[in-house]
């Protein structure tokens, strides 16, 4: 019987009808429970004795509007810094991870250096790295010293490069040795095997944790404000100090979340697409 | 007379204190098909991996067309370009389409023009009835189709020698035939092959010579009718009896 002129048996129709009823029921139950929980939360918060005070000092629309331009210009700094630091840290992490996989006595110093780097910078608090680079390094008074913002960016790249290197390395090591054997048996050199067989699979496999670290980086780029540049959080802090009202912080927080949403969506999309493309029928 | 395509002398390979290959000798002449049989762990796969320099031997020499490829001064990448190997688990690259799996080595290793390499890959795929699968990812193919792609991938390098490592062991019985047909055609084309196999009836049909491995040595070798039909060694007889009991070889 062909696909088109197949008539479901009564029992199949009954099953389909039952499943449909169950689906409708599930949707209704989900809607009801969400509604009840939401109402309870709103009642609990707005009905609390201190709600009026909290609303005034955290959710004041006027103060939010006044602080918005400063916060947005700070956020623009975050965005620019994020783009450069993310690209830099991804590149550095990838290079370090590949260096750590090199075998052979010639590469011992490179391997040791790469390992030492990941140990150091994953252990070292970011704030200390930023202070050393933005305050210590200019103290050397060398010629052609880059601006503080660049030095702060380097501190971020160094720190996150360490995390990302380990993520990349986990990905590289997760590729089954039979893939290497297949590639080498075709005459590909170690480099070609890495470039065309191991890394494409490894990067795809660790894309979610990589982008997860990029989202974390997005929140940490603001720490360059320790050295002077004004990012969104620092701008909010300044606005708060002027008005004794915390609304700018809430505003900055909301903006950060909005900024993260596309990044997270991209992560999910990349993962899904890779899975779907390779999935069995 | 020209030297054998593959010549193994006194091969020894030890894995973690266990001797896997023990003073093993094997010559494979041009256009010859040699089947390696023997129980799991008898060293068949290890021998193939050693011949392709995927494993380093602990003693002995391996020569390809008279050239000592186990000399540490030879470039293993150059040697592997002349030897094709097909694995039990296909080992296709899951992130590359079928066509790219096949064209990877010609383009990257042999520096051939991509369009030309792809055209050749398509032609080879068409010859094994997989033309319409060129754009698919390997996971969308059946096991038999994947293994045929893996064989094409090894052939596109025009190897001197093709090593087949239990290429049908991971396949459902009804898919074994399509892979064996392909190997039969390769023999007809004169390809020099060494195959490790559990398919005794296939070994009998396609092989010029059958070698029975036990404990890392070839303890019996000869024409398939003799080794599989009238084995002289007790170990060979015992092994074949078990195979017959398991229904993998028809008696007679």
TrEMBL record, chain A:
Q: Give the ABC transmembrane type-1 domain ranges.
A: 75-267
Pfam families per UniProt: BPD_transp_1 (PF00528)
Q: Where in the cell is it found?
A: Cell membrane
Q: Does the keyword GTP-binding apply?
A: no
Membrane-topology annotation of the record: Multi-pass membrane protein
Q: Which domain of life is it from?
A: Bacteria
The keyword tRNA processing is annotated on this UniProt entry: no
The protein's UniProt keywords, in alphabetical order, are: Amino-acid transport, Cell membrane, Membrane, Transmembrane, Transmembrane helix, Transport
TM spans (from-to): 27-51, 72-99, 119-140, 147-165, 249-272
Q: Which NCBIfam families match?
A: HEQRo_perm_3TM
Record PANTHER family: GLUTAMINE TRANSPORT SYSTEM PERMEASE PROTEIN GLNP, MEMBRANE COMPONENT OF AMINO ACID ABC TRANSPORTER
By sequence similarity, the record places it as follows: Belongs to the binding-protein-dependent transport system permease family. HisMQ subfamily.
What protein am I looking at?
Answer: ABC transporter permease
From TrEMBL, chain B:
ATP-binding found in the keyword field: yes
**InterPro entries for the chain:** AAA+_ATPase, ABC_ATPase_HisP-typ, ABC_transporter-like_ATP-bd, ABC_transporter-like_CS, MetN_ABC_transporter-like, P-loop_NTPase
The answer to whether UniProt assigns keyword Coiled coil to this entry is yes
Named from the GO MF annotations, one term is: ATP binding
> What is the superkingdom listed in this entry's lineage?
Bacteria
Q: Which residues cross the membrane?
A: none
The record's similarity note reads: Belongs to the ABC transporter superfamily.
Q: Which organism is it from?
A: Plantactinospora endophytica
Q: What is the lineage of its organism?
A: Bacteria, Bacillati, Actinomycetota, Actinomycetes, Micromonosporales
Q: Which residues form the ABC transporter domain?
A: 6-240
Question: What keywords would UniProt list here?
Answer: ATP-binding, Coiled coil, Nucleotide-binding, Transport
- Coiled-coil intervals, chain numbering: 107-134
Q: What is the protein's given name?
A: Peptide ABC transporter ATP-binding protein
């Amino acid at each position: 019987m062909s696909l088109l002129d197949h008539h479901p048996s009564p029992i199949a129709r009954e099953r389909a009808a039952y499943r449909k009823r169950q689906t409708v029921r599930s949707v209704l139950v989900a809607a009801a429970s969400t509604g009840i929980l939401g109402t309870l939360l709103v009642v609990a918060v707005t009905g609390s004795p201190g709600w009026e005070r909290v609303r005034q000092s955290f959710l004041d629309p006027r103060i939010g509007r006044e602080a918005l331009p400063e916060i947005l210009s700070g956020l623009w700094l975050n965005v620019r810094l994020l783009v450069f630091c993310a690209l830099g840290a991804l590149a550095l992490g990838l290079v370090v991870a590949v260096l750590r996989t090199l075998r052979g006595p010639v590469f011992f110093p490179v391997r040791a250096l790469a390992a030492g780097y990941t140990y150091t910078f994953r252990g070292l608090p970011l704030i200390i790295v930023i202070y050393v680079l933005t305050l210590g390094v200019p103290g050397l008074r060398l010629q052609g010293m880059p601006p503080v913002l660049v030095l702060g960016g380097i501190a971020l790249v160094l720190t996150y490069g360490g995390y990302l290197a380990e993520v990349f390395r986990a990905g590289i090591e997760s590729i089954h040795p039979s893939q290497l054997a297949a590639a080498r048996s075709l005459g590909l050199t170690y480099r070609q095997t890495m470039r065309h067989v191991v890394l494409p699979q490894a990067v795809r496999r660790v894309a979610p944790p990589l982008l997860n670290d990029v989202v974390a980086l997005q929140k940490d780029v603001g720490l360059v404000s320790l050295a002077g540049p004004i990012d969104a959080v620092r701008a909010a802090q300044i606005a708060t100090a002027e008005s004794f009202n915390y609304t700018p912080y809430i505003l900055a927080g909301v903006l950060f979340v909005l900024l993260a949403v596309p990044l997270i969506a991209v992560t999910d999309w990349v993962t899904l697409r890779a899975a779907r493309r390779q999935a069995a029928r | 007379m020209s030297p054998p395509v593959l010549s193994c002398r006194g091969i020894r390979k030890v894995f973690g204190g266990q001797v896997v290959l023990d003073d093993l000798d094997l010559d494979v002449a041009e256009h010859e098909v040699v089947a390696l049989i023997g129980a799991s762990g008898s060293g068949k796969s290890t021998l193939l991996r050693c011949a392709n320099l995927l494993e380093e031997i602990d003693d002995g020499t391996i020569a390809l067309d008279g050239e000592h490829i186990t000399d540490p001064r030879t470039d293993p990448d150059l040697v592997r370009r002349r030897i094709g190997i097909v694995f039990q688990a296909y080992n296709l690259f899951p992130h590359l389409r079928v066509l790219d799996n096949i064209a990877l080595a010609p383009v990257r290793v042999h520096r051939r023009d991509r369009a030309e390499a792809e055209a050749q890959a398509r032609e080879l795929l068409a010859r094994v009835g997989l033309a319409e699968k060129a754009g698919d990812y390997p996971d969308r193919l059946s096991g038999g189709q994947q293994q045929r792609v893996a064989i094409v991938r090894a052939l596109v390098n025009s190897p001197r020698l093709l090593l087949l490592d239990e290429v049908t062991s991971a396949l459902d019985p009804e898919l074994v035939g399509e892979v064996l047909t392909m190997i039969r055609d390769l023999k007809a084309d004169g390809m020099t092959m060494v195959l490790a196999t559990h398919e005794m009836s296939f070994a009998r049909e396609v092989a010029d010579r059958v070698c029975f491995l036990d404990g890392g040595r070839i303890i019996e070798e000869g024409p398939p009718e003799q080794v599989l039909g009238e084995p002289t060694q007790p170990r060979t007889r015992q092994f074949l009896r078990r195979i017959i009991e398991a229904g993998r070889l028809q008696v007679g």
